[in-house]
Structure formats: structure tokens, C-alpha cells
Amino acid sequence: MSSPASSGQTEYAPATAATGPRITMPVPHGAKAIVDLRGVKRVYYKPDGEILAEALRGVDLSLYEGQYIAIMGQSGSGKSTMMNILGCLDRPTHGSYFLDGKDCSTMGDEELSRYRGRKIGFVFQAFNLIPELSVRENVEVPLFYQGVRPAERHRRATEVLTKVGLEHRLGHRPNDLSGGQQQRTAIARALVTSPAVLMADEPTGNLDSATGRAILDMFDELHASGITIIMVTHDPAVAERTQRVVRLKDGLVESDGPGGKGTAGPGMEH
């Protein structure tokens, strides 16, 4: 099977086995596929073995280094299941998932957990900060689990918190922060391991409009610096700020095309 990059475009499976349209998206020149789903299915079963739901029904999708991608779809479309698989929080029932060149679908639990910690930074809608820890300590948590020495943890956490404008809040607790500051802390925590991909699940969902725009401005800046971002959103206005929008329907890729940024910016040069 030839790689997508060798043909000059990314091809996705038909939306239905018989008649759905084939969806194509140009491959950036010299691009490296950071995410590659190959025939991915996720099936949930009842205790008696009967199929309960087919959340993903054979997805082929390549996402490239440096891109800013939105994943959209209505409830039941499969977008949350896809995000869980992309984030190595779940495994495909069938098919393969390559993250930064390694097949995650064949890894054991411990290996997958270590690889996830190195390669993926998560930003959640609910922030998921530990209230008993300071801002800097929250950001240090991923480094603690990677066995990084305390002095190096402090240095890296301080550096990334300065990057997101929170250098004056290092010793504060999450409850002392505004919603926007808490989300900035969560973004810093996601970035502190220098991940290959930043994954964000409705990161502005718990924020007011003005604060949400400020957080999206930060994502724009992070992308401009070369970071690969995959964002799940239901909001077309958020998707409009990305380069590429992948829409799911009934467990399949319904469409895949440019967002509001089109081919501008890192990861989309031809």
C-alpha cells in the first residue's frame, strides 16, 4: 500500500461502502504524518457478545506535523471515540493507529501509557487541575511521572508558565485563578513535556466569550510557533480558526477540507 505522501494527496475511504464520496485533502510538501489511522473500527459489545454500538466504522485518516485541525460532528458521530483513540486513551477494535511513526495499537498498556506521556499533551474543557497543588506543581505533574529531577521540573514548568503569561502566579492554587488562567495553566501542563501533538477537547467550553477568544488566540500563537494541534469542537466559529476541518458522521469521515485559515501557516505549505 503506497503512503499518502507519495501520491501528493491524502485519500480517505468512501463515506459508505457503496456510494459515499471519496474525500481528498492535499498533503503539505515534505510533510510527516504525525497521526495515521488505517481502517480503524471501534465496536462496543454487550456482555453476551452482541454488538452494542459501532462508534467508528473503518476510518482512514492522516494528520500532518504542524497542522491545526478541528474534529467536528454531532453527538453520536464518533468524534469523542476518535479523540480517545488519538489520545491513546482507548484502542481500536480493528485497524491500526500510528502516532509519530509507531503503531500504538500493538503496544501493551504500560508501553502505551509511557508513549502517551511523551508524545501527547491534553487540554480538557474542565481544566482537570489538582486543587491542593500550586500552579507550578500542577504543571510539573507530567514530568514527575516521567522521573524528571525536581530542579529540572521547576525550571521547565516555570519556563512554560512564563510562555503562557502566568509567571506571576507560580505559587497560587487553582481556586485563586480565573477560568482563563486555569485553562492557561492546563495548556502549560500540556506543553511542558514538549509533546508531538497538543490535543484539546472543547477547551473554551467552560469559558465566557471574551476569555474563550483569548484562549483561542493563544492556540493560534502556539500553532504559529510550529505546534501540531488537534481540537474537538462543536462550534463552527472555533473550527473557522483552524487550517483543516474533519467532520464525522455515523462513525465515518463525512468531509475533510480547509478551515478558515485554509493552507496558511505551518504544516500546510505546498
Structure characterization notes:
This protein has 270 residues and is an alpha/beta fold. It has a single domain (4-258), classed as P-loop containing nucleotide triphosphate hydrolases (Rossmann fold), CATH 3.40.50. The chain has 8 helices and 12 strands. The protein has helices spanning 4-7, 79-86, 109-119, 135-145, 150-163, 179-191, 209-224, 236-239, and strands spanning 9-11, 24-26, 33-45, 51-64, 68-72, 94-99, 102-103, 120-123, 197-201, 229-232, 244-249, 252-258. Strands 8-9-10-5-11-12 form a 6-stranded mixed beta sheet. Strands 4-3-6-7 form a 4-stranded antiparallel beta sheet, with helices on one face. A two-stranded antiparallel ribbon has the order 1-2. β11 (244-249) and β12 form a beta hairpin. α4 (135-145) packs across α5 and α4 (135-145) runs parallel beside α6. The longest helix has 16 residues, at 209-224. The model is unreliable at 1-23 (pLDDT under 50).
